[in-house]
Amino acid sequence: MKKQILLIVFLVSITVPGAAASRIVERIVALVDNEIILLSELEKRGASAGVPPAKEEDFMSETRRRQALERVLWQMIDDLLVKKKAGEMKISVENIEVERAIDNVALQNGVSRTELFEAIRKQGLTVDGYRRDIRRQLLKHKVMSLKVRGRVRISDEEARRFYNGQVREVRSGDAFVGAHIVIKVPPSAGAATVAARRRVAEKALEKLREGVPFEEVAAEMSEDGGTAQSGGVIGRHMPGEIRPELDRAFLDMEPGEISGPVRSSMGFHILKLIEREASAVMPFSDVRDRIKAQLIEVEMAKQEKLWIEELRRLSYIDVRL
Fold first, then answer.
1. Residue 58's pLDDT is what?
2. Which runs of E-coded beta strand occur in the chain?
3. How far apart are CA 313 and CA 58, in angstroms?
4. Each residue of 228-262: pLDDT tens digit?
5. How many domains does the chain have?
6. Are residues 9 and 97 in the same domain?
7. Could you give the angle at the alpha carbon of 8 between the alpha carbons of 3 and 11, nearest 5°?
8. pTM for the model
9. Is 107 inside a domain boundary?
């Protein structure tokens, strides 16, 4: 294997004859299993990624340039690994798929194909190079969809937690009207008593889920003498004015929503948000799908990174930049 690699290096290390000192104008910058990446290929890919040409008189600029080229080189290495995996999986990208993707890019930017190609040329790129980039992206997307997509699951509960985290600050300035059903727990209660009291609270919640009006369940089961006969209503409050445990729960709720059991020093509470002062926050139901798509995209990126790292570990990679 060593002899073969040395032979390849010899063949592609071309020098300029007659120069005071030989200067290599082509060399291998990476070996990836049985594939090679040449300096000229890296420079070309770097140029399309916006990496400026070398300036020998500017050391700091060249240092930053080499760092940028190294990032591009690892992208090229990853592309080779994905391409190899695609071959093993019998996955390919047809020309018509590339052209459709280009049409979509033009459509999204509100331009024609001709205008898109002209913009590509003005950036110093070639249309053929752009097509190769699109093909690489499509191939990677296909492989990732099959290898990674199955690892990504975003539940409604995860989406709701993300939503709550985003809207709490906005809602912290909104007054609200809430109600509760209280199942008291004595301060000195043992574990068995606490568990028994929780079961009573869960029974109240079960009745509500069966459709019994909140007011009726409050009148029948709530142990808060001050609110039980008035439907459990605790009045109008600003965030921060009631028990912290209840305040946090109400902050995450939407009008008409029921939640619980929530534990406080008083006992277990079943909560209902009756109304909230109007704000610019869109209801969770209106943005749930958008949030889930966003979270899936973020998680896909994480899983993709892990999968690429796994491919790297399983491959022979020699970087010679």
1. 60
2. 14-15, 24-26, 28-32, 35-38, 176-184, 233-237, 258-263, 267-276, 317-319
3. 36
4. 988 899 988 888 888 889 988 998 888 899 998 99
5. 3
6. no
7. 125
8. 0.55
9. yes
